[in-house]
Each structure stands twice: as C-alpha cells, then as structure tokens.
Write a structure and sequence with these properties.
The structure holds two protein chains of two kinds. By secondary structure, chain A is mostly helical. Chain A is built from five helices and three strands, in the order ααβααββα. Chain A has two domains: 74 residues, Winged helix-like DNA-binding domain superfamily/Winged helix DNA-binding domain (Arc Repressor Mutant, subunit A), CATH 1.10.10; 42 residues. In chain A, strands 1-3-2 form a three-stranded antiparallel beta sheet. In chain A, helix 1 packs antiparallel against helix 4 and helix 3 crosses helix 4. The longest helix of chain A is centred in the last third of the chain and has 37 residues. Chain B has a domain of 121 residues: START domain (Alpha-D-Glucose-1,6-Bisphosphate, Chain A, domain 4, 2-Layer Sandwich). Chain B is globular and about 45 Å long. Chain B is an alpha+beta fold. In chain B, 21% of the residues are buried. Chain B has four helices and eight strands, in the order ββααββββββαα. An eight-stranded antiparallel beta sheet of chain B has the order 1-2-8-7-6-5-4-3. The longest helix of chain B has 21 residues. The chains are: A mainly alpha, B alpha+beta.
Chain lengths: 119, 173
Amino acid sequence: MAQYSATRFDASFAALSDPTRRGVLEQLLRADASVSDLAERFHMTLTGMRKHIGVLEQAELVTTEKVGRVRTCRLGTRRLDQEAAWIENYRRTWAARFDALDTVLEELKRKEKRDGRPK
Amino acid sequence: MVAPSEKDSARTNRRTTSERASDREMVTRRTFDAPVRLVFEAWTTPALFKQWWVPKSSGATLLSCEQDVRVGGSYRLMFAHPDFETPMPFFGKYLEVVPESRLVWTNEESPEGAVTSVTFEEQDGRTLLVMRELYPSKAALERAIEGMDEALPEAFEQLDEFLAARVTGAGRH
C-alpha cells in the first residue's frame, strides 16, 4: 500500500512539474480535446504530445479514449477535486462581500434605533 | 463534493453557501440578521453599496458606483486593483426591480457575462438572500469562476496539498 501511494505521488509530481503538462490540464479543464488538437495548440509534434499525455494518464490526471482514428483526452477522476476548489474559491469571494455587508447592516440598524425609522 | 440541499441552506447561521446548480448556473445563499428593507437599501443605495461590495481583503478598490435602480436603468462600477494597469469598468442594466423582493441585472462588460438575480425573503426579522448567476454557456461559467481570485493556481496548490498529505500518510507505514 505504501509503495503504491509513493508511486502515485511520484507520478503526479512528475506530471505536474512540466509547464506543458500543466498547460494541457488547464486546457482540459475548459474542454475535452484530441491529442492532435493539443499538439497543435502547444506547437508540438504528435509524438511529443502523446508522451506528455502518457505521463498525465499514468498519474490518473487524464483519461483518454480512442474512437476511430481520434484519441480524445479528458480530465481524470481528480477533476472533482478541481471543481470543488473552484466553487470554494467562488464561495469565499461572496462570503467576504457578505461579511462586509453585515457590518453595513449593523450600522443601519444602530442608526435606525437612534434616529427612529424614517417615514 | 458536498452540496447543501434546499432545506439546510443557511437559514439559522450566517454561513455563505455556494453550489453549482447546473452547467451554466451558480447559486449562493446567505442569511442576514436585518429586516429586508435594510438589506435591500444596502444593495440599491450607491453610498451604502460602496461600503461592502469590494471587501478590503480583495485588494481592489471601488472608485465609483452609479446605480439607476429601475427596470431598464443602468449601473456602472469602476474598480482599481494593483494588478490592473487601468481601472476596470463593470456595467449592465437592471432587468427586474421589485422593491424589497427581487433584483435582476445583466453584466455587460463581456459577452460571457452572467445574468444575476437576487431574491430577498424576510423570516422573523432576518433576511434570506438567494443569488443566482446564470452564464450564457458552460464554458463562460467555468472561465468566470476559474478567473475569480486566480482560482486555478489555488486549485493546483490544493492538489499539491492533497499529494503532500498522501506522501505523509505513506511515510507512516
């Protein structure tokens, strides 16, 4: 088990250590893409891109499926972690705003208490 | 992923909850300890709105705020941020204005802007607010929430933490 985790870690770390592979992950966050699309977008040969995809697949960050002559890449099972992180970030932005609104509302309530409710 | 259900939304505490309601829509809920007339006033009066819309922690400053709160009326906000070379405008129109009940407006600074609707509901002197942001497409929503406060690098940091935790766990064996 320990061996398995350490191997997974090595694979993930290796996968994320390369800027092209991080770029591919960002791209796949937006939409699935074929290997040839990705090769073109990152100005690489098909062979070069296939190697990068292989590394990402090994780390389970990406899965691929071949239909006919086209191999489509999509984010692996960890996509859910990514999306949860996005949503948490979005939530925090609104939470900060609404906490500031609490302060404004406290002030309005104090004022109303002092001056009476405006007609 | 834990998405709060309709029932246990933040009715009894002040926690802000957000969930993805569909490919194109985000829903956020929050309860305020104030009657709806004050909450609505704070959303529709520029002098008050300016005090909370841009919290200090965001690093941005709201330079100006104009709101013509009526159906078809416009709003325009100008933001400054240390990362921007020039101030950024945010603008759009109010599509629905129902005093102390509902506001709907467009975000027109980009073709990928959402339509935001906010409903205010009073319960025992407190106000339950539900905000929906409906984007024109799945990709637009993802680009928007991913861009918020550079969420993507942060997501990668969390992935790193996740990996680091795994390695620590593995080391114990």
